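Quiz preparation item.
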């Protein structure tokens, strides 16, 4: 059984399920299972590394379509080295991070570890390099989580036959995206993990669908992890779902270097165990609540810095936390859907479950018609 929507047919995929993930293994597995894996590229500071990863994607997706997510913020320092940015970070913030890590018992990195200098993908120059590398491969979609991509990026993507998507947390943002030439609007409700607004998905999606009046297809994001929720999104006028947090406990994620402790923490969490904060990147983002997030919310903690300073500030801390493998000290974007995660499951099994749940939901709806 396939799930037919105009957007799914346009991309030639069986199911209109778009999976954002930092894991190449998960992205490829979703694509092979009939959806569209969308690889998050922001962590690749080295263009050659991204080139290698996309070469792997080309070879491991059975010729099926995949996408890339490239962060292209509008108002951040556009140039400069990590050292230049680090010099802008107050010493009190550095001292706070060091003190919290010590208090939480997070060990320092070994002398053999390469220290993470921060995600330079927030910078326009690095984002441009990510686009240039992507165009050498075969993604069919470029998505941006932080607004409309620059006009020349949209034109460049269109010249290569690539569709452009952008996330929107408000109707005015969705309208601006379409005016700017964006092909697909991802209406992301506040339940979502990562950078997100405050309006709930069930309110936001039909509002954006109505405002766009068919000018662009809409994907629903935020709090969507089951087939019944996909059915609800399509019932509200979306042409598919954009999912992120559902794939954090994919078996392939752990096999691809993802933190087992993080997966353990996510499986144990409830839907109330997330917090919306600026401590991850400098912009509001929803994270799994942990001792790390609690420390930043405590009395006396400094205010987070603007993007990209905050990310550079906490980059090595995130690396140390990941290496510590402590489920109680996790620094991970995650949406409220984590309360429904039942365990570490292969992507193909999860996709089959979503499709079965979707079919059952449609049957229930059909049964309500007199």
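Solution:
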């Amino acid at each position: 059984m396939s799930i037919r929507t105009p957007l799914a047919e346009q991309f030639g995929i069986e199911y209109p399920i778009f999976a954002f993930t930092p894991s190449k293994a998960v992205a490829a597995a979703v694509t092979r299972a009939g959806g569209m894996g969308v690889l998050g590229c922001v962590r690749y500071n080295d263009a050659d590394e991204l080139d290698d990863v996309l070469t792997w994607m080309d070879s491991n997706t059975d010729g099926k379509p995949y996408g890339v997510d490239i962060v292209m913020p509008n108002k951040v320092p556009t140039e400069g080295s990590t050292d230049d940015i680090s010099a802008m970070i107050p010493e009190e913030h550095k001292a706070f991070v060091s003190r919290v890590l010590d208090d939480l018992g997070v060990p320092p990195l070994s002398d053999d570890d390469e220290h993470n200098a921060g995600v330079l993908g927030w910078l326009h120059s690095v984002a441009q390099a990510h686009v240039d590398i992507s165009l050498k491969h075969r993604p069919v979609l470029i998505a941006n989580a932080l607004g409309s991509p620059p006009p020349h990026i949209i034109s460049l993507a269109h010249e290569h036959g690539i569709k452009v998507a952008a996330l929107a947390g408000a109707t005015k943002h969705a309208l601006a995206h379409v005016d700017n030439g964006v092909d697909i609007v991802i209406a992301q409700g506040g339940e979502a993990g990562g950078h997100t607004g405050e309006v709930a998905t069930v309110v936001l999606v039909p509002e954006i669908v109505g405002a766009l009046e068919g000018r662009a297809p809409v994907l629903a994001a935020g709090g969507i992890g089951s087939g019944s929720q996909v059915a609800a999104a399509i019932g509200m006028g979306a042409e598919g779902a954009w999912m992120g947090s559902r794939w954090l406990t994919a078996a392939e994620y752990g096999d691809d270097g993802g933190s087992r402790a993080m997966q353990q923490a996510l499986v144990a969490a409830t839907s109330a165990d997330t917090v919306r904060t600026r401590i991850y990147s400098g912009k509001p983002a929803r994270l799994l609540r942990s001792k790390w997030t609690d420390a930043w919310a405590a009395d006396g903690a400094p205010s987070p810095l603007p993007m990209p300073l905050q990310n550079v500030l906490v980059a090595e801390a995130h690396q140390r936390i990941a290496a510590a493998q402590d489920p109680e000290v996790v620094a991970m974007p995650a949406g409220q859907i984590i309360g429904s995660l039942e365990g570490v499951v292969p992507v193909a099994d999860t996709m089959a479950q979503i499709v079965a749940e979707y079919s059952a939901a449609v049957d229930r709806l059909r049964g309500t018609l007199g």
